[in-house]
């Protein structure tokens, strides 16, 4: 049983969506359902029938077309095949020449009787209409006989179709160059790493944030409003905050209680002596007395 061929970019995006939640899921959904172009590959081969360079040492060599003697004759064969992508109803392809060759004849071979290929010649290019385009059939083949050895180059202008040379694709798929030459993979990998880095930083910051909850009371047990509380957290993460108690004498810092908590607390108020102490509890009740400092963490 053959193993399923899943692109690495899909695997990376799926893992990001699984680890990252809603935003990453939206990215994965866009990546999977994004518009995909049709990739059309082409190959060009040239066959020499007669070359002017051969006339010097083969005097009797000549090619005639009707009553015309031809010194140079080359047949260029262009194959166009769909590598992948969605169905395209119709596509215009131009075969451009470097010079203005004399075109002696053309031979057009569609993949099947259900396909159509029609070409018209111009001094510097040929324009061909192909329909339809899909991955389910053999290549379109266009053969052109000219008096120049320079092969034509296919050119298209379509938003949903990319035309690539089969040789260039083969070269780009070797080693690291296949990744470096694919901008889509670059964007996906960099975006995934940046997203995971941001999530890791957020988790790390939340994990290192401590909570300190306390109440400041007077000697007779009444809340002390406006007392300044100075908190210097020593463990698990450094934090230095100064805040003021509310009308109930309460103060709150952070998000959640931490294990291995350690802090130094200083409470001051104009009407009471300052209280300063060390605590291993993040829930603190400090009672200020007019005559002496009473500061007990509970």
Verbal overview:
The protein has 298 residues and is α+β, with helices and mostly antiparallel strands. It folds into three domains: 1-34 and 185-208, no CATH class; 37-173, Immunoglobulin-like, CATH 2.60.40.290; 212-297, Carboxypeptidase-like, regulatory domain (Immunoglobulin-like, Sandwich), CATH 2.60.40.1120. The chain contains five helices and 19 strands. It has a five-stranded mixed β-sheet with strand order 6-9-4-1-11. The protein has a four-stranded antiparallel β-sheet with strand order 7-8-5-10, with no helix packed on it. The protein has a four-stranded mixed β-sheet with strand order 15-12-18-19, with no helix packed on it. Residues 291-298 have low confidence and may be disordered.
Primary descriptors:
298 residues, alpha+beta, Immunoglobulin-like, 3 domains, five-stranded mixed beta sheet, four-stranded antiparallel beta sheet, 5 helices, 19 strands, rod-shaped
**Largest β-sheet summary:** 5 strands, mixed
Radius of gyration: 39 Å
Shape: rod-shaped
Task: Write down the CATH class of the largest domain.
Answer: Mainly Beta
CATH hierarchy: architecture of the largest domain: Sandwich
CATH topology of the largest domain: Immunoglobulin-like
Q: Please indicate the count of domains.
A: 3
The beta-strand count equals 19
């Amino acid at each position: 049983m053959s193993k399923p061929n899943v692109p690495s970019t899909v695997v990376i995006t799926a893992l990001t969506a699984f680890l990252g939640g809603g935003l990453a899921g939206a990215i994965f959904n866009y990546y999977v359902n994004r518009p995909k172009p049709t990739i059309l590959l082409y190959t060009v081969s040239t066959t020499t029938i007669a070359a002017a360079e051969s006339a010097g040492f083969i005097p009797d060599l000549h090619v005639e077309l009707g009553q015309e003697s031809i010194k140079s004759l080359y047949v260029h064969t262009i194959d166009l095949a769909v590598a992948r992508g969605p169905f395209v109803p119709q596509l215009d392809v131009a075969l451009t020449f470097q010079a203005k060759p004399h075109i002696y004849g053309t031979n057009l071979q569609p993949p099947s009787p259900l396909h159509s290929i029609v070409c018209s010649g111009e001094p510097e290019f040929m324009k061909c209409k192909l329909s339809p385009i899909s991955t389910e059939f053999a290549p379109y083949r266009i053969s052109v006989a000219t008096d120049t050895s320079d092969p034509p180059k296919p050119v298209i202008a379509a938003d949903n179709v990319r035309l690539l040379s089969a040789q260039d694709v083969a070269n780009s798929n070797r080693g690291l160059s296949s990744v470096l030459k694919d901008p889509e993979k670059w964007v996906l990998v960099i975006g995934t790493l940046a997203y995971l880095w941001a999530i890791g930083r957020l988790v790390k910051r939340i994990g290192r944030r401590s909570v300190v909850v306390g109440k400041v009371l007077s000697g007779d047990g009444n809340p002390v409003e406006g007392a300044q509380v100075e908190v210097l957290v020593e463990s698990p993460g450094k934090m230095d905050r100064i805040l003021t108690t509310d009308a109930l004498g309460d103060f709150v810092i952070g998000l959640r209680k931490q294990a291995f908590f350690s802090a130094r607390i200083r409470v001051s108020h104009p009407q009471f002596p300052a209280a300063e102490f060390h605590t291993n509890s993040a829930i603190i009740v400090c009672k200020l007395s007019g005559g002496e400092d009473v500061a007990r963490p509970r």
